[in-house]
Amino acid sequence: MSETFTRVExxxxxxxxxxxxxxxxxxxxxxxxxxxxxxxxxxxxxFGYVRWRANEYGTQDWRxxxxxxxxxxxxxxxxxxxxxxxxxxxLATGNTKVKRALLQIDALETDGFEPADVSPAYYRxxxxxxxxxxxxxxxxxxxxxAYLAAQRVQKGALS
Length: 159
Fold this sequence. Notes:
Blueprint: E1 6-13, E2 17-23, E3 28-31, E4 36-41, E5 46-55, E6 58-68, E7 77-79, E8 82-93, H1 95-110, H2 120-131, H3 141-158
Antiparallel strand pairs: 1-2, 1-4, 1-8, 2-5, 3-4, 5-6, 6-8, 7-8
């Protein structure tokens, strides 16, 4: 694989471990065995990654991270299961916060937005609102259109 890919570990061991992509379309994937696989993303993509772990006493760790991939030469945050890392847009840990974040992703999809195409600024807003237990403002079509317009301008400036 090329070094410009971000590699994400996917795993499923019933009742013990479940790491999966909530959203995002990998450019490539590779099955390691029937319980494990790898997903590969090119720089600039956004994906949601859920990590859940339990033992005989119940859930021990539950995390939901929304990550924007970047070039390995840039400063990246280390994220367990994501190599070499990425820009963390949202991080929710614990049952209540993860459920609230996942409900927000469901709400985006209900409103007709593809979560991988939503503005990174909105995910930062959601992160801050979840961390401070405040109400989350809905993502509007006007925000989305402004984000897409800004991306077109940025691509035009880079050409």
